[in-house]
Amino acid sequence: MYKDTDSKLGYIPTFHKSYLHPRYWGVWIGAGVFATLAYIPVHIRDPILAKIGKWIGKLAKNARRRAKINLLYCFPHLTEYKRDQLIDKMFGTAPQSFMMLAELCLFDVEKTLSRTLWHNETVINRLKRQGNNVIFMVPHGWAIDASAMLLSAKGQNITAMFHHQKNPVVDFLWNKARYHFGGRLHSRKAGIKPFIDSIRQGYWGFYLPDQDYGEEKSKFVDFFATYKATLPAVGRLMKICKAKIVPLFPVYDHYNHQLHIYIREPMDDIAGRDDEYIARRMNEELEHLVAPYPEQYTWILKLLKTRKVNDIEPYLRDDLYR
Fold it and tell me: At what angle do helices 80-106 and 42-59 cross, to 10 degrees?
């Protein structure tokens, strides 16, 4: 399906004539509409995007069900009404955050940087002065790509891994935006070694800690009010890459139309610790970053798919939101 492959320079999205086939015209039209919206003043645009996102969230039954289940397990103290409100806000936040990618590709980067606030940026500056290798541990937030692009725009070489989209034109456009300021993209199909090589060469990595990789190499540790199969990979990456693990989370504030990038101190305490300790520390950092801004997190993922023996996978339960 994909003619482009990883090389020593990573994955470079390339246009192919087949992308002009009529079957993809809807994607191109949608991309054109999205780009046009970027020219609307942000104080007018954000409320429109919130309504569009909320409307899509009502139609996306399967995604909404996964979000409802995740929130039920993670925040059982919330009422059903509160969880539904949170999901609506989540779907409204998504297009507002995605729009920043269009902004970064279409306009001078200073326009976006002028409404970006870096919290605890001294951590980044210190690590840069010290010449450290860095891997940002970034929970799945809607604005994750914008934060990586902004770091690239500020002159830092960034590398990240990604999953291909099923639609090749969506995949091309998405990765073309990510690649706008350079850096290195690595397809997960190529494995983790190219990502590690880039870190060793001085690129700062973006690593997403919350995907479910199954039980084999994961540890079952607390995750909000439930538990999660968590792969303690940052411990090995820290050692192999001789890197600092720095938690980071981007938050889009649609009231003030600003992007806040929250940065935590490096997770130096995980060095030499066992996998269970590392896995729990990963989730602790994720909870610390996400809990104040739960609508910014992608609750539509199958975060809780892998369960302990005799524990039913939540998304297969017929008694939940059918």
Answer: 130
Residue 55 placed within a domain: yes
Integer Cα distance of 262 and 254 in angstroms:
16
Residues 284, 42: Cα–Cα separation, whole Å: 34
- Per-residue model confidence (pLDDT) at position 5: 62
Confirm if 185 and 162 have CB atoms less than 8 A apart. Answer: yes
Q: What is the mean pLDDT of the chain?
A: 95
Angle at 27 between CA 251 and CA 88, to 5 degrees: 35
* pTM of the complete model: 0.94
Q: Is residue 321 part of a domain?
A: no
Q: What CATH number has the domain bearing residue 245? A: 3.40.1130
CB-side neighbour CA atoms (13 Å) of 88: 8
Q: How many domains does the chain have?
A: 1
CA 4 vs. chain centroid, Å, equals 23
Q: Are 281 and 220 in contact (CB under 8 A)?
A: no
Non-local (6+) Cβ contacts of 275 within 8 A are 219, 232, 235
Question: What band does 322 get if pLDDT is binned at 50, 70 and 90?
Answer: confident
The C-alpha atoms of residue 308 and residue 107 are separated, in whole angstroms, by: 49
Interior angle at CA 124, CA 208 and CA 275, nearest 5: 40
* Terminal Cα distance for the chain, rounded: 34
Domain that holds residue 215: 17-316
Instruction: Look at residue 2 and tell me if it is in a domain.
Output: no
On whether residue 142 sits in a domain, the answer given is: yes
- Classify burial at 209, counting beta carbons within 10 Å of its beta carbon; exposed 0-12, middle 13-18, buried 19 or more: buried
